[in-house]
Every structure is written in structure tokens, then in C-alpha cells.
């Protein structure tokens, strides 16, 4: 495991995800659809702290968000896998620093998360009327916000990791 999970204030930033999900700022919406805050937080966390910490963070974040939604579809499996995958990407090869790379990874993560939820709804016999609209709007907005939000978190958490590591 990495260093970020040992810093209480770093872990406490995860509380921003359910708060932003509940608050859902209108300024940061496209056609009434908010970005995937879980993806925007989990991506830099896993890149800095590694696959084990990323998977645990994805699991915890998924459980909290599933508790807020109280639906039959779960975000846990995809967030766990994304945390693990992004953690492996952060540990292997050159560090991910470019805004385009962060945007692309966030786009793929948001697309995977939204597709997983739509598939689960489909298998349960419930198909949201605006399912594709929500998926595309959330994916686009998450990918557009990722270079700004993820870059800031990534820079800060890399500083913390280099000081503590």
C-alpha cells in the first residue's frame, strides 16, 4: 500500500465525493447530469497510492455511494477494478502527467461505470428512459473536468507521497 491512506486528511478528502454527489452543483452539470465525482477522486488517488490502496478506496467509495442511492445497481465492482487498474498504471512505466491522459482515463472510467450501471438495470428489467443520454453527458463532463480536478489532486498527493515516502 502507498502513503496517502496513512494521512488522515488525504483520506478525508474522499468525503467530498458523497457530499458533491448529494449537493450536485448546478453549475457543473450538462443537461441536468452531474459528473462522476467518484471517478474524479479515485483516478489521482490510485495513480499515486498504488493498486491495493486504489482497490480498497474504490471498494469503500462504492459502498458509500451505493448506500446513498439505495438502488439495486452497485458501483462497487467497477470502482474496485478501476482503482486497481489505475493503481497499476501509476506503478508501471512513466508517470501520468498530461492533461489529455487524465481526461482519457477519466472518460474510460466514467464510461465503464455508467455502462455497468445501465447493464445492471437492463438485467433487472428496468431501463431508464434517458439511460444513453445520462451515460454520454456524464462521461463527457467527467472527461472535461478531469484535467483540472485530477491534475490538482495528483500534484498535491504526489507532493505528500514524496515527503512522507
Q: Can you put this structure into words, describing what you see?
A:
The protein has a single domain (4-164), classed as Arp2/3 complex 21 kDa subunit ARPC3, CATH 1.10.1760. It is built from seven helices and no strands. It has helices spanning 8-12, 16-23, 37-49, 51-69, 76-91, 99-123, 131-164. Helix 2 (16-23) runs parallel beside helix 4 and helix 4 runs antiparallel to helix 5 (76-91). The mean pLDDT is 87.
Q: Largest beta sheet, briefly?
A: none
Structural class: mainly alpha
Distance between the termini: 11 Å
Q: Helical residue percent?
A: over 70%
CATH class: Mainly Alpha
Shape: globular
Query: Would you list the SSEs in sequence order as H and E?
Result: HHHHHHH
What CATH architecture would you give? Orthogonal Bundle
Uncertain runs = none
User: What's the mean pLDDT score?
Assistant: 87
The CATH topology is what? Arp2/3 complex 21 kDa subunit ARPC3
Please give the domain count: 1
Q: Evaluate the radius of gyration.
A: 15 Å
Question: Quick one: how many beta strands?
Answer: 0
Number of helices: 7
Strand percentage: under 5%
Keyword list:
0% strand; 7 helices; 165 residues
